[in-house]
Design goal:
By secondary structure, the chain is mostly helical. 74% of the residues lie in helices and 0% in strands. It has a domain of 43 residues.
Length: 69
C-alpha cells in the first residue's frame, strides 16, 4: 500500500477541531506526549513498514523545509 499524499480525511475541519480539543487543558509536555502517542497508535494501525518509513521521511523533510523558510 503506497503512502497516500492526497487529502483523505472527511470533514477535515471537524477532525482538526477534535485534535485541538484533545489537547485542551494539557500542559505543553502532555500535549506533545498525546501527539506522540497518537502517532504510534496510528502507525500500529497502518502497520506497513514501507509506508511508515516514507511517512517519517516526508514529515522530516517537510519540517526541515518549514524551518528553513
Amino acid at each position: 500500500m503506497p503512502l497516500n499524499h492526497q487529502p483523505n480525511i472527511p470533514n477535515q475541519d471537524t477532525f482538526y477541531a477534535e485534535l485541538i480539543r484533545g489537547q485542551q487543558d494539557l500542559s505543553d509536555e502532555q500535549a506533545d506526549m498525546m501527539i506522540a502517542k497518537l502517532a504510534l497508535i496510528l502507525a500500529n494501525h497502518v502497520g506497513d513498514r514501507e509506508v511508515l518509513t516514507e511517512a517519517i521521511e516526508l514529515a522530516r523533510a517537510n519540517t526541515l523545509a518549514a524551518a528553513a523558510a
